[in-house]
User: Fold this.
Amino acid sequence: MHICHVRSISLPSRSHPTTLKIQEELYKLRTLEASSTLALGAISNGLSGLGELYNCMDELSLPSTQQAISLHQHERWANELLDGSIILLDICGVTRDSISQFKENIGDLRYALRRRKGDMCTERSINNYNTSRKKLSKDAKKLLGVLKKMYNKFEDSPLLDQDHQISTVIRVLKEVTIMSISIFQSLLLLFSAPILKSRPSRWSLVSKFMHKGTVACEEKHRNMELENVDIILVAISSEESNLEKMQLACKGMKALEISIEGLNNGLDSMFRHLIKTRVSLLNTISH
Assistant:
């Protein structure tokens, strides 16, 4: 799973237990980054881990946190955290809505394919799926640009005195934000890829993958779920469509629908976490 590089910080020996717990969750996400591929399941795991990270953030609603954010010398950080929270909230909301629409098109196409008829209904469903997929790719590319600017802004901000307890809280909040950017970047990179065109050498690989759930080592870092569906749909749209390809298409769409459902649930959960975090930041700053 591709994630922006997230620097690890050294915490003072007297750091609050919650900040240490947050560092543990960040370490788990970094481990996931190193071991995962660019696949829907890996992204869902990343969203789940990010949710756990935000659960720890809820425990940081302490006097020390309020002091850290509200002190005058940290006013810049307060503004950056607030700006970052609304950007992440917007990106999460737009991505969730786009993927939700994409999921509906997947369901419609799967229903049409199960009828196993090469009629206008199937052709229309395939066109609707491709249109939705292209729109999702276009939206993802735009959001990636927003995330890149946000990431650069946070990276360019100078670190505060590492020996200062309050500064430690601020740095932890920064790391959580950067990790959030990284997870969303991975998700959007996955959907930003264009629709693939079928190639003769690819069909046997797709068939093997769909039947056995295995894939060649050189393919393991590819987004196989979406790529396989792209190639299968091109195949069944041609004159070479047959029962085997229709069955593989149904199987591939079902697997994709399940994976997208997992992503959708993860985004719903993250949206609630981000709303809660923003409200908490606003309440903290207003005190």
Confidence is low (pLDDT under 50) at residues 5-14, 208-221. The radius of gyration is 22 Å. The first helix runs from residue 17 to 35. The chain is about 75% helix and 0% strand.
